[in-house]
Amino acid sequence: TVPIDEFILNLIIISVLVTILRWFYIRYGNSISNRQKFANNFLPLAMGTVLIIMVVKSSIALSLGLVGALSIVRFRAAIKEPEELVYLFIVIGLGLAGGANQPILAIVAFFLILGILFLNKIFITIIFK
Q1: From residue 61, how far is each of 37, 64, 68, 107 by CA, in Å?
Q2: d(CA 98, CA 104)
Q3: Which residue numbers in the chain have pLDDT < 70?
């Protein structure tokens, strides 16, 4: 069984982090596609990941069933730019950390990653302009 207070706390923490990531991506992303429309998928993806990990983390049978189900279902959205894929991996990583009841790890890793991305953006702007 999953303690409901733990589940809700993880959902809230991951929601806040993903909302900050959404803002960061819209503001600082380099993608030429519609960043706002793409970033709207961050929250449902993270929440779904938290839910799935919370359910399967206590059962090897459920996790094997999930692997089988995921081998059938493909993510059909065309990823036009690698940057989009990078942000999706960050969102999934946050969801995994929330589902595994590691909110402190999620917070620390999130702010380190965001800081590195921001510094990289500044560095590239200075060097190539």
Answers
A1: 36, 5, 11, 30
A2: 9
A3: 67-79
Short-list 127, 45, 48, 124, CA closest to 91 = 45
Alpha helices, DSSP H, located in the chain: 4-28, 35-39, 42-56, 60-72, 82-99, 103-127
C-alpha radius of gyration, the chain, whole number: 16
Q: Is the dihedral of CA 68, 64, 100, 110 positive or negative?
A: negative
Residues found in the chain: 129
CA dihedral 71, 66, 20, 84 (to 10 degrees): 0
**Residues contacting 8, CB < 8 A, separation 6+:** none
Model pLDDT for residues 25-41, shown as the tens digit of each residue: 999 988 888 889 989 99
Instruction: State the amino acid at position 116 in one-letter form.
Output: I
Residues 6+ apart with CB under 8 A from 40: 22
Are the beta carbons of 18 and 94 closer than 8 angstroms? yes
> Two tokens at 31?
């993608």
